[in-house]
């Protein structure tokens, strides 16, 4: 991935870098998979990844449940980003239901630290992160990024594909920007407003 794309997403508050440091010339980097799982646990999020996460599956019962029930795999067909309509298999929920807050399994946990041990800070609700890496937090999203008590209606997969095709007819050869805007605004259905976002997006 081009580094400047990651920097732009970070500036927009849509991506966070895991911390790292250099000690005596040696690079020390925190394990990003643990960050993703902890964030998904705290925010009732869905993790978008093709990683099997086998190496940390046994660290926490809550994480086992997330890995089994709240991981969304993806693929690229040319420049088209695609996710399955049946993320949990042919007998599981369809994508729209899978991404709905009320359909996500609720797990009672006792807290989790990065090292897989019980956290001593269990009485207070942790602050909600303002940005996420590969975690979809759909609980309180509203068009434009505002939060409220009422849940917005998410676009269907078919409607998103229709809007994508219409945006590409207006902005040809800008697949990356179109996909970025549609992903950032999962509830927005107004073609004119989406076009304005495309025009104003500094990519």
UniProtKB/TrEMBL annotation:
What are the boundaries of the region Disordered? 109-159
Keyword annotations for this protein?
Answer: Hydrolase, Immunity, Innate immunity, Nuclease
In this chain the N4BP1 C-terminal UBA domain maps to 155-200
MF (Gene Ontology) = mRNA binding; RNA endonuclease activity
The residues covered by the RNase NYN domain are 2-97
Q: Which domain of life is it from?
A: Eukaryota
Q: Does the keyword Hydrolase apply?
A: yes
Q: Where in the cell is it found?
A: Nucleus, PML body
Compositional bias per record (Polar residues), positions renumbered to this chain: 121-135
**InterPro entries, per this entry?**
RNase_Zc3h12_NYN, UBA_N4BP1_C, ZC3H12/N4BP1_RNase_Reg
State a GO cellular component annotated for this protein: PML body
Q: Which family does it belong to?
A: Belongs to the N4BP1 family.
Listed name of the protein = NEDD4-binding protein 1
